[in-house]
């Protein structure tokens, strides 16, 4: 138990007074996650904007960069990575292609399939934004010790796995 109180503690105290018959403790976790979600969104938006990107664009570029040489994935693989619909991934790819950060071409292995490739400009944009993004995330976690960060990461992982959020099996490209 912390000796520091936040706005969620006040809300929980109010509910305990008004509805002592209910266990409102889930609000302590979900309320704080909701507040943090907003903080993360705003901080990341500002960071990506400094690099001419947004979060969805960064996600696509990062997925391609993590794929390793030759920095290619199929739109389906990108869709799975981003957990979005085919329409959403198409919009993202259209915007990135217009900016010259990715290219789309027919697969040499299968002429019917399309392959998305990270361009040199895309790699440069991602590589420039990544250190700034990591610093933003470090700042968001300021106040937690390394052990606390590890514990929080583990707890959040367990919660996500319990909710069925496990990665799909890799399918290559």
From TrEMBL:
It comes from the Bacteria. The keyword Transcription applies. GO terms for molecular function: DNA binding; DNA-binding transcription factor activity. SMART domains: HTH_MARR. The keyword Transcription applies. This is DNA-binding transcriptional regulator, MarR family. Keywords: DNA-binding, Transcription, Transcription regulation. PANTHER family: TRANSCRIPTIONAL REGULATOR, MARR, TRANSCRIPTIONAL REPRESSOR OF EMRAB OPERON.
């Amino acid at each position: 138990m912390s000796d520091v109180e936040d706005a969620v503690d006040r809300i929980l105290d109010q509910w305990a007074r008004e509805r002592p018959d209910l266990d409102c403790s889930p609000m302590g976790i979900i309320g704080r996650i909701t507040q943090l979600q907003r903080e993360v969104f705003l901080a990341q938006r500002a960071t990506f904007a400094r690099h001419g990107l947004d979060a969805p664009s960064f996600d696509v570029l990062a997925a391609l960069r993590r794929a390793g040489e030759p920095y290619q994935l199929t739109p389906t693989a990108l869709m799975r990575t981003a957990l979005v619909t085919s329409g959403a991934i198409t919009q993202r790819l259209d915007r990135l292609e217009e900016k010259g950060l990715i290219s789309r071409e027919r697969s040499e292995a299968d002429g019917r399939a399309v392959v998305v490739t990270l361009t040199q400009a895309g790699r440069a944009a991602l590589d420039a934004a990544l250190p700034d993004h990591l610093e933003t995330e470090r700042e968001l976690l300021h106040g937690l010790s390394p052990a606390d960060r590890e514990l929080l990461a583990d707890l959040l992982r367990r919660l996500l796995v319990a909710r069925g959020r496990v990665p799909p099996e890799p399918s290559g490209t």
